[in-house]
Design a protein that fits this description.
Number of helices: 5
Helix content: 40-55%
Number of domains: 1
Structural class: alpha+beta
Distance between the termini: 79 Å
Largest sheet: 5 strands, antiparallel
Radius of gyration: 24 Å
Strand content: 25-35%
Keywords: Membrane, Transmembrane, Transmembrane helix
Oligomer: single chain
Order of helices and strands: HEEEHEEHHH
Length: 155
């Protein structure tokens, strides 16, 4: 009888250890340093193999203007990092980077009407596309985004 208890307790301990080693919930962050877009990628994993994934994409105004101009960012300066890992779905460890990592502004003003105005500007002034690509995506002169919004009558 005593041997059965020892085996049961040992088995429970072994299974618990396997659970905490094998199962985790991870939060990865994708950021583009050219256009400012970011994604939160949330994964449930077993032995680091994703079994369920949720992607929360957040477009920046810079990215949205580029898309509307027909010059989407190629995300050449992207960064992908691991923010949290919850071992066994409950213990945050290795990594556990807490705190605010991004503040997002309200871009509710960027409606379909604004998108249409930007696209119309790209049709009227085709040189704006190449200028946007050079000044914003390559040289990081982000104030030019405001200039485009003003030219389009959207700001």
């Amino acid at each position: 009888m005593k041997q059965k208890k020892i085996i049961a307790i040992s088995s429970l301990g072994f299974l618990t250890a396997i659970w905490f080693v094998a199962v985790d919930w991870s939060w990865f962050v994708f950021e583009c340093h050219d256009c400012g877009c970011f994604k939160d990628v949330l994964k449930y994993r077993v032995f680091e193999i994703p079994v369920h994934e949720t992607i929360l994409e957040h477009q920046s105004v810079t990215q949205r203007v580029g898309i509307d101009l027909g010059v989407p960012c190629p995300h050449e300066r992207k960064e992908y990092w691991h923010k949290h890992r919850h071992r066994g779905l409950c213990i945050c460890a290795d990594p556990c980077i807490n705190g605010v990592y991004r503040l997002a502004a309200d871009d509710g003003w960027y409606t379909d009407g604004v998108s249409t105005k930007i696209a119309d500007l790209a049709l009227k002034e085709p040189h704006v596309r190449s200028e946007y690509s050079k000044r914003v995506l390559q040289e990081h002169q982000y104030e030019f985004v405001k200039t485009i919004l003003e030219k389009a009558g959207a700001y």
